[in-house]
Amino acid sequence: MKHIKTIVQNIEKLSLLSGKQPQTIAAAAIFLTCIVNSDESQRRSFKEIAAVARIGESTVQAAYRRFLYPKRTEIIPEDYGDSLRIYNLSLNAK
N or C terminus of the chain: which is more exposed, having fewer CB within 10 Å? Predict the structure, then answer.
């Protein structure tokens, strides 16, 4: 939770998802947090997160791919995850 809050704060600070619905921001932040997590059991798909957030899967994908992925090294806290793993994240994460 702490890291998700920090990621959301960084997203807001950089105005990456300004004008987007709160559930879109939350879903994209949760997805980014899950794929960086080294614990495989904590990973969730776009579809799973979208269902819980009650938004379209494509909405989460677009927010991640267009806005968060390019700025991932600035958004993710330094103490969360392996920096090499963060840098090498796939644009097509599932």
Answer: N
List, for residues 2-17, the tens digit of each pLDDT value: 888 999 999 999 999 9
Which amino acid is present at 84?
Answer: L
Which of 88, 14, 82, 85 has its CA nearest to residue 28? 14
- The single-letter code of the amino acid at 19 is G
Question: Between 3.40.50.300, 1.10.472.10, 3.40.50.720, 2.40.128.600, what CATH number should domain 2-87 receive?
Answer: 1.10.472.10
Please report the pLDDT score of residue 4 as a whole number.
Answer: 87
Output the average pLDDT for the chain. 88
| Burial of residue 61 (number of CB atoms within 10 Å: 0-12, 13-18, 19+) | buried
